[in-house]
Model the fold of this input.
Amino acid sequence: MKNLAATMAVLLAMILTGCSTPLTTREKAAGIGTLGGAAAGGIIGSAVGHGGAGALIGGALGLGAGALLGDQFQGQEQKQQEQQRQLEQNQAELERQRKEIEKLKKQQGEY
Done:
């Protein structure tokens, strides 16, 4: 059981460090879910005499659950980024309008 968990941890570490682009939130959550599920499945499986099968089943279930949660988190991040972009656009427009008002006030003072 310890060898299986260690092997899975090493394989996941190799996969994660071998990626040329940063992992998305979905991918990070899927990896965490896989490790957690494999560990929990291995522990439960070893209690009934099938540690390897438990780890595989737990890893697969953890992968699915982690990917689903990660997808939700990633969607929230994207929504927040869009809201931040819109906020920055609104602030820039307000600043432009403030400068226009100041310009008009100065022009009125000249006449």
Observations:
- The mean pLDDT is 85.
- The two ends are 88 Å apart (CA to CA).
- The chain is about 90% helix and 0% strand.
- Residues 30 and 66 are 4 Å apart (CA to CA).
